[in-house]
Amino acid sequence: MSDAEETNSHTGFDAIDHQPAYIYTPTGTNDDALERPTKRRKVAKGRPPVLQPHESTNSLTFEPLIGDLETLDCVRLRQDCFHKYWSETNARIQSIVNEANEDTLAEVTAFVDSPGDINQEDDGRVPASFIVTGPNIASQDLLFKQLSARLKKEINGPVVTLRSGDASNLKAVLKQLIRDATNQRSEDEELSQELDGRKLLNYDLEILQSYVKNHGSQRVVVAFQDSEAFDTSLVVDLVTLFSSWIDRIPFTLLFGIATSVELFQERLPRAASRCLYGVRFDVEQTSSILERIFQSAVANSKASLRLGSELVASLMERQHDHVQSVQSFVVALKYAYMCHFYGNALSILTDASTSSQSLFKLIKPCHLEAIRMLPSFRRLIDSRVESQELIRARELIQDDTILLQEIEDSLESKDGNILRLLRAFHVFASALSEPPSGIDLYMTIFEGALSGSDHLKRVLDSIKRMTPDDLVVFTKRIKGAIENGSCELDLDGWADEDEELIAELRDVEIKAVGLSGKSADTEKPIRSSAAIHSKGLRTTVIAQRVQLSYEKSTITEAEKEFIGLIDHVSKLLEQYFTLENPKDLFLNELWLCDSADLFLDVFAPRPRAAIENALSAPHEYLTCEIGGSEEGLSSTHPTTAIIYQSYLEAGSLINMADLWTTFQEILSGKEGDEGDEREALMQFYRALADLKLVGMVKQSKKKADHLAKVAWKGL
Amino acid sequence: MASMFSLPSEVMLTSLVSLFPCREQQIRSLATLLAIRGAPSRNVVLYGLEATGKSAIAKALLQGLSAEPDNSLVNGDSDVLHDQLRYAVIKSAECITGRHLLEQTVGAVAKAVNWEGNVGRCENVAQLVVELGRMLEGWRTSDDGATNHRIVLVFDGIDHQREAPPTLLPGLARLGEIIPNLTTLYIVTAPRPNFLHLPGVPHVHFPSYTKPELLQILSSTSPTPQLPGGAKETQETWSRFTSAVYDSLSKHSGRDILSFRSISLRLWPRFIKPILDGQLSSTPFSRLLVANRSLFQNETVLIPGIISEPPLAKAGALVQGVNESKGKYQGIANQLPYYSRLLLVASYLASFNPPRLDILHFMKSASSKRRKKGGGTALSRSSNTKRRTISRKLLGPQAFVLERMLAIFHCIKEDADSRGRYGNGNERKRENGSADIQMAIATLASLRLLVKMGAQNAGDAMDGACRYRVAVGWEVVRGVARSVGVEAEDYLAD
């Protein structure tokens, strides 16, 4: 649901609705300009300009933290950091999102440009392209925006996008179509709706025809963004109408299809499908785009904030379980940035660009105090204590200058540590011919669990099954990864830093080449190490008896050497992929964001459960006495909660008289026998109105004086 | 002096007849009814099924008639009377409302008579009468040379007019009584008796083409590509081929000429492929037929495809088409998120299980009862056989209340989770009443995998009492259910 709809949906409800009277309090009369009521009109809502640094420097939108002890400079620094880093990341993401649809855009544009190649017969059929987008409807919006922008640029003619929401009937659609098509060239004024002195109806396609004739348009592109959600009869009407006009207006249709073309065709009656011919285009799947965004925004070496494995896992689970959408991932990522810089006072230290000296000027004792509260600080002290450096540990706790020194050291080593992890990530991903999904790998590495993980085991196993030629390819791949780096992750090659590994690998490679050369000479193939070790089972049938015997494999010299080589390589790799757990690093809280609970509460709200819980256990929210009764029926509860409790106990049809009697009894229990009936009735009505507002009861048509129960608890 | 009665020139009629074979009778009767010196009628109804040449013949004939006077001049009639016939065609398919039709009529007539004045709005038939009368009067006075005037209005497909007021047709039928020299031609598919509320309207029937007629018409089209043997061989093979296509495919499906022609043209390149490849020759036609028999058995060509296969892949397209139809739902099952799939399965169960059996299927305590189902006493069994009930599956999906589906969803969710991904007893209660689930339902509804019953805009889509119906079949649901680890059959009443 978009923001606009959200705000609109609340317009009907107001707190004043249930207030018997309200007092008008005129506010200060001096600020007239602010008091002026906002006009009710539709305003095109652009992006809120949060990403413009020059504006944000003037006004601080961030709050000072640590009990207002933080200085304004720090707050400003955090705010600037957020804007800087997020805009960088966002730019990277947007470039990927834009180019992800590039292929589809080009294909569709080519088709729209010359659809005649496909249709040989001229039989009044309308060219149509069916763009299969996958079931994520949210992504269609972006795609169709890009498409219409691209088509407007490259095709001579109007492009109109229709959505199911504003297509109620044929007349309305045609009106919109004509209006949108004829308004696209801003330089013309009002297009004359007259033809030969005759005023045309505003849904008459002749207007469009004269527009096409005047402008020499070659195509009129009509896009059905969410074609499934359209009323089928409406689509049929439109298609037949377009096909009837095709000799005068060069229509081309685009259909955004979320399920499949076959399903779409099944729903269309023959009369309409006879009027269409077209080509199917597939859009890149969400999962692969997501992987790429992840690599460039989270795993990228230039990203300043990294997501922890727990958070990534919960995000990915949500992607799998509920919504598959790039947008929701980007939003979650932005939220992580916002949380980090807004809520973490230490995030000023994240900023890598400013020199540590100027940073340390900003640091106040309160910051150091906060650092001493961090779990990673505790871990640091623990490790110091374990290694018997008690004095050092005490100094860290007590002496601020020593702590500052330690912070400076860890900030300097931070980049190196992250780089090491990312390099391992890249080498691992590129070493295999079928690498595991980048997100999985990232999660394992950032848990610090790569060395014992299944991924590594699989690699080592695969090495054992390699022949010398495979091994050469394998080492070459690793070497290539180290030398060339990765442009997706923005890693430069680092061959000069990992000279040892390179040298070892080169050595292995030469040996392996030599071995395979030798084996080619002797025409004795060298088996892989796994094949050598596994014992061959030999079956012999002698006189109708089966004899099983193990074959002793004989190992040649070359094979022995090869086994040694393999062992060497796997040891090298094991060593290379033994990585530090980033969560054990001191001050990892500065660059690692890892709290999944925060995210689920924000992005997966449970409105219905919240309402039900509030009604059945109001004492969790309000300060009311919990009566002695345990089943929840207590006269001290709010009246709505009392009614809700009896509502839960009732069947699917609720007798009003019974409900009222129960209610009165409970209330009178509170106030003794002197309960005012009118007062009680008023409360009863009000509580019922509340339940109706929430959508839990409805007037029943089956029985007089009964309510129908609509919602059950816990669903 | 020209006679009062004369038919239109024979030259034009014969050329029309040769253009539209097998329609001579209709052309001649229509010409008589329309020609100025024939037996002009105020209203004429042309009726017949689709693709029988009604509109095309009417249009061609009117064109011929409106150009007629020139011919009579050439004939050298001394005291020639100028006959002026004009016509205007209004296609109902392009008119959105009844009023649009009237506006179009006025516009078309204004164009036909070269009216240059202002044209007023035309909101109902009464205004149409006024406007038409004005225009025709103006035409008559401006065109002094002619003595006989006649204008023909052609309403093409008027019986399928959208939002037509009920008085439209009777009103139009009486136009001719008020405006002189006006003929109204209605082209309809199947007229109801007395639909103009006017007796004595001449009807011209365009019957569907019979087999010999179809073959005769089709023989005039020349197929591509040609056979190597030349035009004669091609023509011979083509005629026998079309006859075979008619008997095997066209006869039982649509018999109209358009679909017949398009099927024949589409099958032709594949049919003669053995000849072009040099494997067979055209002379024993039966051998060619046998070699290509799969073409005539496969009925997928009858379904118009909206995806046009690229011309290169045409040969293998048929086989491919069969395979594709099998896998068409596979995509959705894999693409939908996990909980959407579960919701789809739950909706299917809610649609096909009667609500009174829910306790049996979804209550945990009822598992003992469920086992009993197989047995049953002799008495109950005999009563069962007596009552003839139709299987729920055959009755199609029934509407269900959203709340019930949610209850079923939570029930099968536990099953799916325990068998599927969260096998380690992970307690997950986050889905209760979550916004994500509601979003998933809304998405399924807008993909039309769930169909909301009743008025589209009545009530909120998430209202618990809102009624839905599942729109996918058993095959799909079984696949989807297996992908999330649920065996849908366990929960389905039989």
Automatic annotation (TrEMBL), chain A:
Please give the InterPro entries that the UniProt record associates with this protein: ORC3, ORC3_ins, ORC3_N, ORC_WH_C
Residue ranges occupied by any Origin recognition complex subunit 3 insertion domain in the UniProt entry: 367-577
Keywords in UniProt for this one?
Coiled coil, DNA replication, DNA-binding, Nucleus, Phosphoprotein
Indicate the segments forming the Origin recognition complex subunit 3 N-terminal domain, all copies: 55-349
Which is a Pfam family this sequence falls into? Answer: ORC3_ins
Coarse class of the primary localization is nucleus
Q: Where in the cell is it found?
A: Nucleus
Keyword DNA-binding among UniProt keywords: yes
Q: Where is the Origin recognition complex subunit 3 winged helix C-terminal domain?
A: 608-712
- Gene Ontology MF terms in the entry: DNA replication origin binding
Q: Extract one GO cellular component term from the record.
A: nuclear origin of replication recognition complex
Region described as Disordered: 1-58
According to the UniProt entry, the coiled-coil residues are 167-194
Q: A GO biological process this protein is involved in?
A: DNA replication initiation
How this chain assembles, per its entry, is: Component of ORC, a complex composed of at least 6 subunits: ORC1, ORC2, ORC3, ORC4, ORC5 and ORC6. ORC is regulated in a cell-cycle dependent manner. It is sequentially assembled at the exit from anaphase of mitosis and disassembled as cells enter S phase.
Q: What does this protein do?
A: Component of the origin recognition complex (ORC) that binds origins of replication. DNA-binding is ATP-dependent. The specific DNA sequences that define origins of replication have not been identified yet. ORC is required to assemble the pre-replication complex necessary to initiate DNA replication. Binds histone H3 and H4 trimethylation marks H3K9me3, H3K27me3 and H4K20me3.
The family annotation for this protein states: Belongs to the ORC3 family.
Per its record, how is this protein called by name? Origin recognition complex subunit 3
| Protein species of origin | Lachnellula occidentalis
Q: What is the lineage of its organism?
A: Eukaryota, Fungi, Dikarya, Ascomycota, Pezizomycotina
Automatic annotation (TrEMBL), chain B:
Annotated region Disordered: where?
Answer: 368-387
Q: Which family does it belong to?
A: Belongs to the ORC5 family.
Q: Name residues in a coiled coil.
A: none
A GO BP term, please?
A: DNA replication initiation
GO MF term list: DNA replication origin binding
Keyword Nucleotide-binding in record = yes
Q: Which InterPro entries match?
A: AAA_16 (IPR041664), ORC5 (IPR020796), ORC5_C (IPR047088), ORC5_lid (IPR048866), P-loop_NTPase (IPR027417)
Give the record's GO CC terms: nuclear origin of replication recognition complex
Q: Which residues form the ORC5 lid domain?
A: 238-297
- Provide the Orc1-like AAA ATPase domain boundaries: 20-182
Q: Which UniProt keywords apply?
A: ATP-binding, DNA replication, Nucleotide-binding, Nucleus
Q: What is this protein called?
A: Origin recognition complex subunit
- Every Origin recognition complex subunit 5 C-terminal domain range: 336-492
Localisation? Nucleus
* Keyword Lyase recorded: no
